[in-house]
Amino acid sequence: MIVHKHMSAPPITISHDTDFKAAMALMQQHRIRRLPVVDARGALAGIVAERDLLVAADRYLSSPVDVAQIMTRQVVTVGESTPVLQAATLMIERKIGGLPVLDASRKLLGIITETDLLKALAAILKQRADANARATAGRRARSAGKKAAANKAAAPKTRAGKKPKRKPRTKSR
Question: How high does pLDDT run on average in the chain?
Answer without folding.
Answer: 86
